[in-house]
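Justification of computing resources. Each target in the renewal requires a structure prediction run like the one illustrated here; the chain below, 146 residues long, is used simply to show the kind of job we budget for.
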Amino acid sequence: MFSYEDEGHRFTPKEVEILIAGIDKLKALDPAVGSGAFPMSILHKLVFILQRLDPRNEQWKERQKQRLRVAMGAAELIEDATTRENTLRELEQQVAGIEEALRKTPSTTAESFTLSKTASMVWTSNPSPCRSPRCGSLSHLLRIRK
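Resulting structure tokens:
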């Protein structure tokens, strides 16, 4: 698909959008659970591809900010005021973190890639007392508070 020696790419804007969406939804499983070399190599390749597809991170940044806006809308539905405010504050910090990461390194997508993948799990300082491994995630908080 991409060579380290080639410059640019030959994809249409629609194809670029589809590829970036695919990378954004990608889930990789490391069955060996060893040194972490396998997931790190995947991360490096994805960052390289994203740099080629979206050199100024415009599409990537907008996708991550949109994900956080959706999460903020869902967080507004949390009944407990303290949990809701903590969750919203954390999400706002993540938006600022995306902005800062891309401002510091506009040609590198690695930090924003990592931020986007961690943004899907929102931890609060006041999680519910349940023992679920997902306890504290936004989707879990919304489910148990309905």
